[in-house]
Amino acid sequence: MIVVKIGGRVVKNALDNIIDSVASYDGKLILVHGGGDIVNDYTKRMGIEPTFVTSPEGIRSRYTSKEELDIYVMVMSLINKRIVTLLTTKGRKSMGISGVDGASVVATRKKRIMILDERGKKRIIDGGFTGKISSVNTVLINTLISLVDVLIISPIAIDMEERVPLNVDGDQMAFNVAKALKPEALILLSDVDGVLLDGKVVTTLTRDQAKDISSKIGPGMNRKLLMASEAVEAGVKRVVIGSGLVPNAINSALSGRGTDIS
Question: Is the pTM of this model over 0.85?
C-alpha cells in the first residue's frame, strides 16, 4: 500500500493525468488531495479575498476564517467526489472521506499563531480554523482501504472538543496518515520535478540531508523536506517528491523520477 498526495495546482491543471496514473497502479492506494487554487477561485467569487500568513520560519500557509472554512469544506468535498466519480468510472473501486468522517483524523484548533507582518515583525493573532493533527484512526482507515482499491481523503480534520471541522492542509494530512500507517512509500506530486538546488533536481537525500537543506529551499518545499525527514524517522520507508504533470506520474516517481528521501 502507498500514500499519494496531489497538490492543488495538479488538481486544477492535471487531474485527468493523475486519474489515469491511479487507475493504472496495481495495488492499494490512499490518495490525499489538495485544492488550494480552486478554493481561492470560489472564495473570490463569493467576495472574500483569500488570506495567507507567513510564520517566523518562513512557512506560508492559508489563514482560514469562519467564512473561508465553509468555502474550504465545500470545495474540498466537491473535489473529493469528483475524484471518486472519475476513478469509479475507470473501474477502480473507490471511496472518498475527510478526516471528519468517523473521526478518522482528529486535530486541535490553533488558538493563537505567530506570524510575520508586512514589516517583518513577529505578531500573535487568533489561529482561525486551522488545526494541528493529533491522531489518526488507523483501525478505521485500514478497514476502509481493505474494502476498496483507492481511498481518497480530503484535508479536513475534526476538533472533538470544539466540535468543528478544521483545515489541516494536504501535506500535513498526507504525512500524518503515512506516519500512522507506515506505507511502502509516500509520494508527493506537485507541479515541479522534485527538490531543486542550484537549478538542478536533487535525486536522492537521506533523512538528515533533507533536514539540512530545508533552510536553503523556498517556502512550501522547505516544509515538505522537514516533514519528509520526520516521516522517514517515524518508519515510512521512502518519501518521493515528484511531478504530477508527467505521464504515469505515480510509477514514474516510484521508478526514480523526482527526489527520493529515505
Answer: yes
